[in-house]
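sorry to bug you again but im stuck and you know this stuff better than me. below you get a single protein, a line of residues and a line of whole numbers that encode the local backbone shape. mainly i need to know what kind of three dimensional shape the backbone takes. anything you notice is useful, everything is just below:

***
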Amino acid sequence: MGEPTKPLQQPTRPRVIIIGGGFAGIHAANGLAHLPVDVTVIDRNNHHTFQPLLYQVALAVLSPANIAQPIRTMLRNHPNTDVLMDEVTAIDVSARTVGLSSGARLTYDYLVLATGATHSYFGRDEWAPLAPGLKTIEDATEIRRRVLLVFELAERQMLEHGWHPPLNFVVIGAGPTGVELAGAISDIAQLYMRRDFRHIDPAKSRVLLLEGSPRVLGAYPPDLSAKAEAALTRLGVEVHTQTHVTAIGPGWVEATGSTGSRRIDAVVTLWAAGVQASPLGKLLGAPLDRRGCVLVDDRFNPPGLSNVFVLGDLAHLEQDGHQVPGVAQPAMQMGDHLAKILAADLRGAPRPAFRYFDKGDMATIGRMDAVAKVEWPFKAHISGFPAWVTWLTVHIFFLIGFRNRLSVFAAWIWTYFTFTRGARLITGDQRLPGWQDQVDAGPANPPQQQAARD
């Protein structure tokens, strides 16, 4: 008899590791669900966050659960996908391995890096504890704590001593996040909290928006930028363009503008002035831009790394002479397109080039007001209530999960028709940077400090 027949060896399925559970990572995982590959999604958090609505968590319109969903739940119907809650600490592109903080080391055939961006304080990282930015759920709840705590401390101070420090909120940076934060703080102070306190008048708060460039929403067309500034002014926000922050301390901000330098008392300071790429991009050893983004081609590959793909905010991709913006819409399109690239690899076909399809940009400015640059299905610049309805519809549509859409829509209806906010919870420390210093210094101008209701 001859030797027994050896069983046929099954071909090994390519292993794809996706680092990051943001828009790009989740869309990539969804796109790969039906391909003959094994996928591992790694994120240091167990949830995906719908970042465009983070400011509404920060200003107590929504709760964190409204805009976040467990990654494991989102991908549970993909049998080829594993989810690991861990942090990547090392990448070896020559050995094709990824090292994790738990000590594990995973091998890959394809690596997808989609870890996004974080705050940039332009080399002044000591400002971070004094002026938090807004990128995560933790950032949003910290901002909510500080903003709501201001009014509680002022009420107590007024009741005990008959005066309180000036309630000045300073927002640094007038991009979409800064504009939305400034408008929402003004809304809270003037509309939603006006009947909740007996000894202070929240409507007498000041909101100052500081921007170094000549106009707010600098990436938007000039007409929409002008309308946004006009809407902020109607809300009572004090807009200061061509104003550069030179120092931040506990309870104060120093800024230089056309009228010279000045020091502004600030019970809360928020940072929306700049971002930098995730530090994981440096582990690839690939060329980076000045913000730390990895330079990639139109297949998302850094030079010389054909099996490594960089997506979303971490990627510096040029199209028509301009960098594709680091916002949610391109990240989702990149994630979707990655599946087409790997499908082409599996077929032995050429990889299709990516081209970003810009559908437009929009930003809200307080209650029922917004600006929008629409590129699809028609081109238009709209503002006011129609832009706000467009913004609401788009964000409801892109929220992940029916439960999230329903809960957010219900929260918006309740907020906008009852003038109350349902997520006004203060947790954690009951101190603010610089508050006690201002109290100890006493009222600079007692008649102007009295904010009690008539």
The mean pLDDT is 90.
